[in-house]
Amino acid sequence: MMRYLQAQITEKDPTIRLTHQPTRNDIGLGWGVRTTGSYRDIQHNGSTPGFTTHISAFPELGNGCVILANSKANMGKLILGTQAILKRKK
User: Fold this and answer.
1) Domain residue limits, the chain
2) Rounded to two decimals, what is the model's pTM?
3) Exposed, middle or buried, 2 (CB in 10 Å: 0-12/13-18/19+)?
């Protein structure tokens, strides 16, 4: 997952850059893309019973996170807290 995240952060592959371009309503090709100030938050999440995931990439900040959990409980707080730490690393 870390290699996959690194590819999303560096955007060296033109195909990856293409998937990060919002087509409408802040949605890229499979990614949610939000611009906050001078950087983008590129993210995707998903879940199945008993398992949930979230990935965020901040290309302009050079970092990101992958969160894997066996419960959705407090996932929103965990995501927002982790993102806040990463955004301070600017």
Assistant:
1) 2-88
2) 0.85
3) exposed
